Amino acid sequence: MEQRTPGKGILSWIADNLVVLIFLAFTIIGLAFSEVSFSWFLSELTGRLYRNGLLVISLIIPVVAGLGLNFGIVIGAMAGQIGVIFVRFFGLGGIGGLLLAMLVAVPLSILFGWMTGILYNKTRGQETIAGLIVGYFANGLYYFLFLFVMGVVIKMPAGHPMIGQTGIGVRNTVDLGMADQGGLKYALDNIIKIPFCQALILIAAIILILQALRFVRKKQEMKVKKNRILTFVNMALCVAVIAVGAVSIATKNSLTTVVKVPVVTVLLIVAACVFTELILKTKLGQDFKSVGQSQSISEVSGINVDRTRIIAVIISTVLASWGQIIFLQNVGTLNVYNAHTQVGMFAVASILVGGASTAKATVRQAFVGTILFNAMFIMSPEIGQAVFGQALLGEYFRTFMVYGVIGFALGLYTWKANRKSRLTI
């Protein structure tokens, strides 16, 4: 009897993209039943995308290397916060202060990533749990440093605005100050900003040109009808986006009120995406993929598995430290003892919403997941207000969704893996 191959048919496609479809439906329903304007929604969504994008991108390489969902990026976030605290302690700010914070975070995140990688090598197969536990352990050391060491072991100047009234420990909240007044807030975002509609036209035009060049260069290779149709659909969508942007500018409709796009921040996130794609095409990237598929075969092939896994964790930790610095300069306030605690949960939930799993993750999935997950965060209070008359119920719901999507996605991945193994047998 002929058995059907997994992945074929509409039901299999729905099963593969169930989490994505749920969040997409949630967002559409939210926009339909709430009273929020589409321009306000876009402003909130794009702002969160710039703020959280790099943190989610930092999860891709560990997944490819077989380390699963790296909850240990919270340690990278701590390294980034240490860099920010160091810079603000000496009263530095602006783009110079931001770059210095990133520079300070690099050696710390490399050290933390190396130590975390060693731990993961000792706990093979349990990296997700190990990442959670090491995050809690590092959090204790972080508290010890800023609650006790700074002020008791390392004497602090009396009356410093970052130090508590007792002279011991850093204050709970540190104002990063505006960049144009010597602070860090918007230090990166405010370098260059362009209107949203102009950015929309520019991005769509770039994608359109790249798609056209790809079609011309690989026309002979595109013998599969599905690939050619997909290319034409992408080009048509780009043309439609350009038209919408042009009409919006001409008519000055609500899209022109969406917040401006921070060009440098976006370019930095794009650079991280390009870096991730390029490194996966190098010898090191092939080693990541080989180790992720089979550690035993990789060892037989001469790949240093332990070293490769450690490098993957270090890269993830460095990207996470920079992602946290970008997040903080956008927020403008550092909650010293809590800002990093949920970084791992939110980033992991975002990439899972995009369709990733513990064994596969791509830049596209990270991008889609960040959009859908943050759309849910934005719409939850609005839906709670519209449906139940209480925005607080929406707050409870989105907290539930953060943990629920992680458990659901992991359970769905395990079910599909078991089903595939049964069909293979």
Describe the structure.
The chain is mainly α and 425 residues long. Helices cover 71% and strands 2% of the residues. The chain is built from 16 helices and four strands. A two-stranded antiparallel sheet has the order 1-4. Helix 5 (73-89) runs antiparallel to helix 6 (94-122) and helix 6 crosses helix 7. It is globular and about 65 Å long. Mean pLDDT is 85; it is low at 1-7.
How do you describe this structure in short?
The protein is mainly α. 71% of the residues lie in helices and 2% in strands.
The main pleated sheet reads as: 2 strands, antiparallel
Strand order across the biggest sheet? 1-4
Mean pLDDT: 85
Q: Work out the helicity level.
A: over 70%
The gyration radius over C-alpha positions equals: 23 Å
List how many beta strands DSSP finds: 4
Structural class by sheet pairing and helices: mainly alpha
Low-pLDDT segments, ≥5 res: 1-7
Shape assignment: globular
What series of H and E elements makes up the topology?
HHHHHHHEEHHEHHHHEHHH
Strand content: under 5%
**Count of helix runs:** 16
Q: State the end-to-end CA separation.
A: 14 Å
Salient structural properties:
16 helices, two-stranded antiparallel sheet, 425 residues, disordered N terminus, mainly alpha
Write the layout of secondary structure elements.
Elements: H1 10-16, H2 18-33, H3 38-57, H4 60-64, H5 73-89, H6 94-122, H7 127-153, E1 173-175, E2 193-194, H8 196-217, H9 225-251, E3 261-262, H10 263-279, H11 283-293, H12 295-300, H13 305-331, E4 333-335, H14 343-353, H15 363-388, H16 391-424
Antiparallel strand pairs: 1-4, 2-3
Helix pairs in contact: 2-15, 3-10, 3-13, 3-14, 3-15, 5-6, 5-7, 5-13, 6-7, 6-13, 8-9, 11-13, 14-15, 14-16, 15-16
